[in-house]
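Table 4 source record.
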Amino acid sequence: MEGSDARDLSRPAILLAPAADFRRDFGKRAFPLMHNLAANPLFSLEALEDAAACWTQRGQSHRFSVSGGQTRTNAKFSEMVERDHIATAIRTLPHSCSYVKISNINAVNAGYQSILHQALLEVEDVLGTPIVSQTTWAQMTVFLSSPNIVTPYHIDHEANFLCQIAGEKDVWLFDPNDRELLPDAEIEHFYLGDLNGAKYRDDLGERGKLFRLTPGVAVHHPPLAPHWVRNGANVSISVSINFCMRELDRRAHIYQVNALMRKIGLHPLPPGRSVTGDVIKAGAMELVNTSRPKNYREAVFSGLDRLRAPYRLARKLLPRSVR
């Protein structure tokens, strides 16, 4: 990307897009761009098998998971894979009708972490605003998928660059600011922990924009942009560079407070409608939120988890007849 000299210019750029387009659309609209990761040996099948094996050897097998194919509107999520099935799960993808997910691969070794950090610096460089210092959590996730697998319609909290390494896939992305398509109530459900909070509607499906990803092509997913994905005829490998920022976490906390208020019969205003209300809601949740999150869950949900803890303890301790 064209921009200032803030990043290390001795390294080839990872993300490649016209700076003016990037500044105009980042965080607001989906847009295509190029990347240079497709030929990087760190994303070969052999290297990815090693990365998945590394997680299990460290007792972090939850970061490697596999799931069977799903329909567009049915969002079942991953079941864990035993350690000795890692290579088999990856190598049988051409005919297993499944997908493999390796989370937080940047923590496996310095090579992956360097790629993640450089990508964030490039975004900061082009935007001309602080990104790294405002990032509360960032990670790279690798998806390996069988031919024709469909990833169900859903939303994500983070800003994301989905980079295609091998194979092809079609990504349908929708406007995150379309409240007919994505009502505030569905966002509230999502931020209460319902991964299926966003509901696909056939009659609004034409509002999605199609992006065809091939090796070397990427697409920017704005935060909360609804999307669903269909793989092409071959095994697909893609890398997600995603990150939470303070302003996104603050908005999430406002939605969480709104959801809790709605549960007791109140009718709170959505984020952005009341400066004073937003300050109070965000401040209240941040009082109980983890100040230095170590993962995505802590960045977004630690305050909510702490508020729920007494209720969950009571349900556990009280006999059913008293509830």
